[in-house]
Design a protein that fits this description.
alpha+beta; globular; 2 domains; binds zinc ion; 17 strands; 6-stranded antiparallel β-sheet
Length: 333
């Protein structure tokens, strides 16, 4: 099923024509639970990984013994999904049974990999695989047509003590034999960093620059236009500028820290490549709920990947516009 973003509740360029100079496009990825294969774009894999190429690992010094067993995380989600999908009958409400609660109680965080030293290589976890044919605006350099995003799911890397995001790009046609047994990490630092498998429904959308980055005269006019009294009024930030959810390209939303310059080591301002969002919509951003999801708007359908970053924010990955081999940067919002 495709996913279609409803038309914006109003045409802000008709109100403030100068905003047309601050229009852009992004591609919403709309991940939804599914069973992707390596030849498809996905969240969570499996990846089109060459059988003769070593699976990437994390060797950055940090503790990797303690956390959630990945298998437990998947089992817990499966049990809960089943439990809450059962209809309630008289005397038997839906939700976990005694037996299920007993099992859930055993799936705890712990020192599940005591044999691992702080620099022992652990396999990276597949997060996203994007084929250029599926994702308009992916814009991979050279003749690459496939982007693979993996991470090490521990809050232990870099100054920000974040997950460690790794990007790989390749030509799909170069992969003649796909790695059949893809290594799976035993323990993740947080269960929130373990994605559920999703297929993607990419959709190109029009956006407008983040409010705080607009020229002052336009901001002043937006301030004047915005009805600050009525909390149900159309809002530039929530309804008209940048869609929530996973996306490729478009503008960065700086709603947590305020605008930041993201500068490459070569001095250039970096481009937003990928946004990984904890939610595809929330109460403030319901106008972006795809038409096909209107029936499930009040369910957990807004958290299809189960990935939660920060305190329910988003993780932005930036790349250098002149050379993708310059180190990418990751910013939490
Ligand atoms: Zn690591
Ligand atoms: Zn650069």
């Amino acid at each position: 099923m495709t996913r279609s973003t409803p038309e914006r509740p109003l045409d802000i360029e008709a109100v403030i024509p100068e905003l047309s100079g601050h229009r852009g496009t992004g591609t919403r990825l709309h991940p939804r639970p599914g069973s992707p294969v390596p030849e498809e774009s996905s969240v969570g894999g499996p990846l089109l990984w060459p059988a003769d190429e070593p699976w990437p690992t994390c060797t950055v010094p940090h503790k990797r013994r303690f956390g959630d067993r990945v298998a437990d995380v998947r089992r817990r989600r499966r049990i809960l999904a089943e439990a809450w999908s059962r209809p309630s009958t008289r005397g038997q409400p839906s939700g976990p049974t005694e037996e299920e609660l007993r099992i859930l109680d055993t799936l705890r965080r712990g020192r599940h990999a005591p044999w691992l030293g702080d620099t022992d290589p652990i396999p990276l976890m597949p997060i996203a695989q994007l084929y250029a044919r599926d994702v308009p605006g992916l814009g991979l350099p050279d003749d690459a047509d496939l982007l693979q995003v993996l991470w090490c799911p521990f809050n232990a890397h870099g100054e920000d003590r974040n997950v460690d995001v790794h990007l790989f790009r390749r030509r799909a046609a170069d992969v003649t034999e796909v790695l059949a047994e893809q290594p799976e990490l035993e323990v993740a630092g947080r269960d929130d960093y373990v994605p559920d498998l999703c297929v993607l429904h990419p959709e190109k959308v029009v956006e407008h620059q983040y409010g705080g980055l607009l020229p002052f005269p336009i901001r002043a006019r937006l301030d004047e236009w915005q009805d600050w009294e009525d909390e149900n009024a159309v809002s530039y930030q929530f309804d008209l500028s940048i869609p929530p959810g996973w996306k490729i390209g478009g503008f960065a939303s700086w709603h947590v820290t305020g605008p930041q310059a993201v500068i490459c080591e070569c001095g250039r301002e970096m481009d937003l490549l990928l946004t990984m969002d904890s939610r595809e919509w929330d109460r403030g951003t319901r106008s972006w709920v795809p038409s096909e999801d209107q029936d499930v708007v009040d369910t957990e359908a807004n958290t299809p990947t189960w990935i939660v970053v920060g305190r329910g924010g988003s993780l932005l990955v930036f790349v250098c516009p002149s050379d993708w081999d310059h180190p990418h940067r990751v910013v939490l919002q």
